């Protein structure tokens, strides 16, 4: 059965569907030796597909990894400016990986990498509301009133955020800073930083500590591990129960 080219590319671990669409539009994809730039193109199972001259392996084993992303690293498989990217930390993994979603350049923490396009799309889709917890160091001594506002949702970019879980972990009067835990299920651009800005506290440092049922337990910055079958199944169970 014919399938859209970008879906086949994502399932083969080239990139997410959105990133695959960009590769197609840039003229970097060939089907049966012909450059294809039309996003509506459908391909058959026996078609030959290559990206940047490299033949697609459609039967590649699906793999899933958890990386403790360091600060100062790009959440991408490649960077045209030559900057360090998250896949640099998994060079000994033979499969072609890409990150599920992204963490900002200056944000550390839990990031999933995979070559399973369907899994990545499900994890990132806002419909499924997968919880993600962040720990932020912010300027100022945050108050219970500000925490209440974060929990009820604040307006960023003209649109209210969903309800969240927020908790003060510590406050340092001498340094005039606070450490706050914030759990959200949305994934809007710079959302956590903008939520704290909305209550008057600029984020100084940010880390994602959980993603669904996953944690960073046992890892230090720059380390990674493969997810178990049970862990992948638990993540899928989260979205299937929505």
UniProtKB/TrEMBL annotation:
SMART domains: S4. InterPro entries: PsdUridine_s_RsuA/RluB/E/F_cat, PsdUridine_synth_cat_dom_sf, PsdUridine_synth_RsuA/RluA, PsdUridine_synth_RsuA/RluB/E/F, PsdUridine_synth_RsuA/RluB_CS, RsuA_PseudoU_synthase, S4_RNA-bd, S4_RNA-bd_sf. It comes from the Bacteria. GO terms for molecular function: lyase activity; RNA binding; rRNA pseudouridine synthase activity. Its EC number is 5.4.99.-. GO terms for cellular component: cytosol. NCBIfam families: pseudouridine synthase (TIGR00093). It comes from Ligilactobacillus salivarius (strain UCC118). Belongs to the pseudouridine synthase RsuA family. Keywords: Isomerase, Lyase, RNA-binding. Residues 3-61 form the RNA-binding S4 domain. GO terms for biological process: enzyme-directed rRNA pseudouridine synthesis. This is Pseudouridine synthase. It is an enzyme of class 5 (isomerase). SUPFAM superfamilies: Alpha-L RNA-binding motif (SSF55174), Pseudouridine synthase (SSF55120). Gene3D superfamilies: Alpha-L RNA-binding motif, Pseudouridine synthase I, catalytic domain, N-terminal subdomain, RNA-binding S4 domain. Pfam families: PseudoU_synth_2, S4.
């Amino acid at each position: 059965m014919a399938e859209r080219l970008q879906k086949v590319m994502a399932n083969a671990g080239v990139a997410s569907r959105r990133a695959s669409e960009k590769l197609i539009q840039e003229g970097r994809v060939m089907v049966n030796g012909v450059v294809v730039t039309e996003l509506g193109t459908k391909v058959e199972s026996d078609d030959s597909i290559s990206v940047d001259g490299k033949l697609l392996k459609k039967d590649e084993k699906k793999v899933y990894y958890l990386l403790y992303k360091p600060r100062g690293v790009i959440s991408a498989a490649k960077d045209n400016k030559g900057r360090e990217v998250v896949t640099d930390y998994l060079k000994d993994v033979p499969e072609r990986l890409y990150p599920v979603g992204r963490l900002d350049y200056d944000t550390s923490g839990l990031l999933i990498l995979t070559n399973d396009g369907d899994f990545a799309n499900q994890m990132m889709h806002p419909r499924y509301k997968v919880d993600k917890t962040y720990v932020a160091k912010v300027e100022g001594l945050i108050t219970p009133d500000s925490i209440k506002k974060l929990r009820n949702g604040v307006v960023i970019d003209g649109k209210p955020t969903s309800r969240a879980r927020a908790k003060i972990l510590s406050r340092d009067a001498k340094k005039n800073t606070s450490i706050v835990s914030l759990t959200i299920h949305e994934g809007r651009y710079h959302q956590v930083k903008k939520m704290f800005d909305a209550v008057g506290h600029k984020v100084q440092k940010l880390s994602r500590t959980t993603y669904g049922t996953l944690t960073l337990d046992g890892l230090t910055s720059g380390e990674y591990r493969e997810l178990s079958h049970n862990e992948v199944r638990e993540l899928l169970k989260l979205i299937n129960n929505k």
